[in-house]
Amino acid sequence: MKNDLRPPAAITLREAFWYWLKLGFISFGGPAGQIAIMHADLVEKRRWISEHRFLHALNYCMLLPGPEATQLAVYIGWLLHRTWGGIIAGTLFVLPSLLILIGLTWVYMVFGNTPAVAGLLFGIKPAVVAIVLAAAWRIGSRSLKNGLLAGIAVAAFVAITFLDIPFPLIVLAAAFIGLIGGRVAPEKFHLGDGHANVGNTSYGSALIDDDTPTPDHARFSWFKLALVSATGIVLGTGMWLTLASLSGTATPLAQMGWFFTKAALLTFGGAYAVLPYVYQGAVEHFHWLTAAQMIDGLALGETTPGPLIMIVAFVGFIGAWTTTAFGPDALLLAGMAGACTATFFTFLPSFIFILAGGPLVESTRGNIRLTAPLTAISAAVVGVIVSLAVFFAEHVFKLAEPVGSWDTMSMAIAAAAAIALLRFKVGTIPLIVACALLGLVVS
Q1: Is 84 inside any structural domain?
Q2: Among 102, 129, 199, 282, whose Cα sits 20 to 30 Å from the Cα of 367?
Q3: Is 19 contained in some domain?
């Protein structure tokens, strides 16, 4: 039952602007931490949205490809202040991370070989292995509720690790299994509300409360769906054509536009799930960066606020820098353009999904035939993330000289980090700082 707290006064767009900007700078801890911050602020403290409506929005975002915490910010911003509210919320959620990563990546490219920076990375990289394994454990404990789903995870691990099957094909295969399974054995693909533990306490009347009517701009209409979708497609296509006209379709910036658009549509399960696809494309196919640089980028991404998928900014920066997209005398400009290109095309689909399809996708929630494919994809994602951890471990722990030897210090740091994460629930940022300092001491 509601307590006697009256709902807060209407929130102006200016007030919302400053909140979303602040959130962009403090949103550490990955999706779980970012969602927890928004819940504490928007549900418990500010009461902009009720518990039920917050979970309703979160479940919707979990059905979509893309970073769910970013989409949740877009959704709430849109619900409060229409289209511009959603655009401002999502942009400010990402912008601080982009700017910080551009600065850190420049430092990495210019000073990365100095002893101090190398020492810090020596400690951070084993921690990244532990963080990825912990992510697989958390997702697996939530997703692998029966033998069938566990089997899908194992099959995905074998497919990407030993058979070199591309990540998109694994996603499609899992979706097909879920589509059939949702009809034949729906009980195997019903996991319930994976986010019910966010909370179910009443914090008083909210501005957008349980019984607040859906605002007119959030009601579904085919015209709005078509208009916003077309606007987003035209914007993305126009940006890509601009890049192609400036430097040609076979140049890095144009290639990044198309590649990161595809990556954005495959991010079921969060950033860790799409990293193998980004690795396959950026390292093995386009050769924008090396495997070691990819690991370093993930290490830097773990230390910054914002979505972890922002590692794409690191990839874009280095890709444009190393390929001298604007010539050898404009490396910094090229790197900045690459980072912005990767970020724009990675996040544009998320904005379109929320602003165009929110009401439509909400109406399908709870339909097992539509959610079963996503349940199967989530199971496959666990296997893919474990494969990613194995890949990182091989590159972090194996020494170049003598051939076949292993770095026992890195392995010890990784083991200690895994225990700290899984047994003692140490936060990601304190763990990264501790491992970085340890690496500086022992390197």
Answers
A1: no
A2: 199
A3: no
At 198, is the pLDDT very low, low, confident or very high (cuts 50, 70, 90)? very low
- Residue 120 to residue 368: CA distance in whole angstroms: 47
Q: Which residues contact 287 (CB under 8 A, 6 or more apart)?
A: none
Confirm whether 25 is domain-assigned.
no
For residue 281, what are the domain limits? 97-193+221-442
Name the domain count of the chain.
Answer: 1
- The whole-angstrom distance between residue 416's C-alpha and the CA centroid of its chain comes to 25
Whether 143 is in a domain gets the answer yes
On average, the pLDDT of the chain sits at 82
Q: What is the pLDDT of residues 23-51, one digit of tens each?
A: 888 776 567 667 777 887 888 888 888 87
* Among 277, 279, 259, 257, residue whose Cα is nearest residue 268: 277
Rounded to whole angstroms, how far apart are CA atoms 271 and 30? 9
Please give the model's pTM, rounded to 2 decimal places.
0.73
CA distances to 143, 234, 303, 402, 426 from 410, rounded to whole Å, are: 30, 48, 19, 16, 19
pLDDT digits (tens, 9 = 90+) for 316-358: 999 999 998 888 888 999 999 999 999 999 999 999 999 987 7
C-alpha closest to that of 178 among 432, 353, 381, 352: 381
Which residue bears the tokens 């496959």?
Answer: 380
Residue 63 scores a pLDDT above 70:
no
Q: Where are the alpha helices (DSSP H) in 112-166?
A: 115-143, 147-161
Residue 125 has which token pair? 């990289």
Q: How far apart are CA 408 and CA 426, in angstroms?
A: 23
Cis peptide before 359 (omega within 30 of 0): no
For 209-240, the pLDDT digits (tens) are 777 777 777 778 888 889 999 999 999 999 99
